[in-house]
Amino acid sequence: MSSTKSNDKNIFALVDCNNFYVSCERVFNPFLINQPIVVLSNNDGCIIARSNEVKALGIPMGAPFHHYQHTLLQKGVQIYSSNYQLYGDMSERVMNSLKIFSPDVEVYSIDEAFVKFKYSNRRNYYEYLRTIKNSIFQWTGIPVSVGLGPTKTLAKIANSLAKKSKIEHIYDLSSPSTQIETLENIQVENIWGISKRWGAKLRLIGIGNALQLRNASPQKIRKYLGVVLERIVYELRGVSCLDIDQIQPRKNIMVSRSFGNPINNLTDLEQAISLYAVRACEKMRSQSSRAQTVYTFLRTNSFSKKNKQYSAGIMSGFNNPCSDTGYILNIVKKNLSQIYKEGYLYHKGGVMLVDLVPDNVHQRNLFERYDYQRSDSRMSAVDGINRKFGPGTIFYAAAGLKKDGDWQSRTHHLSPRYTTKWGELPHAY
What we know:
Number of helices: 14
Low-confidence stretches: 1-7
CATH topology of the largest domain: Alpha-Beta Plaits
Mean pLDDT: 87
Helix content: 25-40%
Structural class: alpha+beta
CATH architecture of the largest domain: 2-Layer Sandwich
């Protein structure tokens, strides 16, 4: 095998956790290995993760849980509520492990990331991918699939093929000859970034697979379908047009939930919405931002024909950009009292922090003085304690002293939060 022409050539690997939510449950409960498992969405509504054993039973992704509950119990399937604290912490461990292999890591989702590295000796690619895969499993307990390619698009295709591998879960698309052989069997709709609508348009002009798209004229593709498809043509040819993206701070942050049970009183609504505001503020500070506006909203269940319908929202701007949870909570509670109406069963509510700016941007106000130093010190102490000892170690009474209110999401099958709650650590007997 020949080596690459330049030592500066970049290679992209897409590392994707296999059945991530299911794998997280298995890490701390080895009795679940090779057992059929499903994980449910918020309020135990739909099936959002399935083990391979469940997929073999024909249980579809996104299916309503109540439609398949009898079948799942009959087949001995283990059922779990979404344990997002556990999944988020395990995801962070996987991503931090990847940074050991390269500083250029783009977290694409909770369970997958692109890794860019410079590597010139093709004979070692496969062994290097195996090292990444085995190391991640050894350090975190999470099995991964790894796809390699000279561009992110090819790495994405390689990863989809790696997931189908029953042994190594590794696929190398760095070789031009392998690319040509592989792309002929990839339908255009299965290419990363191409929707079914674009796939239909491509088929109208005689392009049905990835190889045909690779061989098409980039200029004609751009003329008829736009620059995004043109970039994909070049990416399929091995010309990188999409580099590793640095994570950009979000301009808006929203936290909203459907309540576990409908709420018909202001007290419970205040507790629920206050909790969402606290979480939104934590996310905002984690990206070193401050909000200039907060939006608070409520709504009833639009699918219910028996109950009266109502929805409302209200926005409030700040004189100075703010990241202080206590101050924002006061505004949210005032907003809530204005939009709340008696006689309705509220199904969902939430808070959105709007027009976020970096926390090092201090826009002075001629008529109001704001002490960022005291506020930032207080928030930093609270966030630090909650990171060290687990979420909710220090909490706001506005969010309620009880953690099992009727408005809380239904989690009848929740596993322990092994990595973020001291009281739920695994026990050795």
